[in-house]
Amino acid sequence: MTALDPVLFTFLNGSDIEQLELNDTEVLDAVEQGLLAQGRGETVIEPRVHLTPDPAFNGHFNVLRGYVAPLGMAGVKIVGDYVDNYKSGLPSEMALLNLFDPRTGMPLAVLDATAITEMRTGAITALGARHLARTDAKVLGHIGARATSYWNVRLLDRIFDLDEIRVHSRRPESRKAFAERLERDLGKPVIVTDDWRSCVEGADIVVEASRLERPEPLLRTEWIAPGALVVPYGTMSAVELTLTDIMDKVVVDDWGQCRSGPFGALRAHVESGRLSESTLHGELCEIVAGDKPGRERPDETILFWHRGLSLSDIALGAAVLAKAAERGLGQKLRFS
């Protein structure tokens, strides 16, 4: 390239990504490769930062940053998280992922990362469960019906072929529509519950993906069955402080992100000292890389807290970009 050559980058909009029709295996494999690179020390991840333009807007931006050496890509994702967007017919989370050549800083691509965020979140939930849930887990209790919730359930069912799926969310219309979509796509019945307790009590896997305006302990520790896996990842905590007291293992996606910042399901547990580097079993990437064990006994009760990894966005974004190139999708835009 000379100084006179134009600098081009690829732009993929939401329609482009939808046309790619990524399947479950492609999503899981891409995100797992990101975890493996993280576990091998081949990544750089910076804790996310936040921008709250005005508390009256009831939302904020998350900025995630990372580098995945085996992919030869650095990335920055900006995702808005606006609780009331449903009132305007908008997704609560909309995102852009920017991919760069880490050697030169040259822009490689800009992607609509809304679907990528949904898919990679579900993949982290499911991959965590692959290593941390009982292999015979058949009952799922899922709180929340936001966009990431669909991929949680879809990919968990892909791995465990669930016998019973229970769902609950704050708004009756959202949980009904959520269950109908799952039934249509998974080809099996989904139980819609009217309350948290009937959704999660006694389930083998409990996922808490609620959207609360402020922390509120709605998920009771006493409802968790021995041997269960609990995956809470709401922005605002919905769990009791006693939840970690019953856990044999607590696993996170990245301790650097979990130990800092104003948000997260176990924020109060970190601030109170209940969860610390010394009480933590490890990061999921360490388990994926084989450096630490996952579940070791059927009776272990385990908690997996994920905050969301820029590395997962980059890994899935790279897979999307490669498939789009094969299909001839996307636009080449001139940067300079």
Which short descriptors sum up this protein?
alpha/beta; 8-stranded parallel beta sheet; Rossmann fold; ornithine cyclodeaminase, domain 1; 7-stranded mixed beta sheet
Report on the architecture of this protein.
It is a single chain. The protein has 336 residues and is α/β, with parallel strands linked by helices. It has two domains: 8-116 and 311-334, ornithine cyclodeaminase, domain 1 (2-Layer Sandwich); 134-308, Rossmann fold. The protein is 32% helix and 24% strand. The chain has helices at residues 14-20, 24-39, 114-132, 147-160, 172-186, 196-200, 255-258, 267-271, 284-288, 310-327, and strands at 8-12, 43-51, 59-68, 73-82, 93-100, 107-112, 139-143, 164-168, 191-192, 205-208, 229-232, 249-252, 282-283, 302-305, 331-334. It has an eight-stranded parallel beta sheet. Strand 5 and strand 6 form a beta hairpin. The two termini are 13 Å apart.
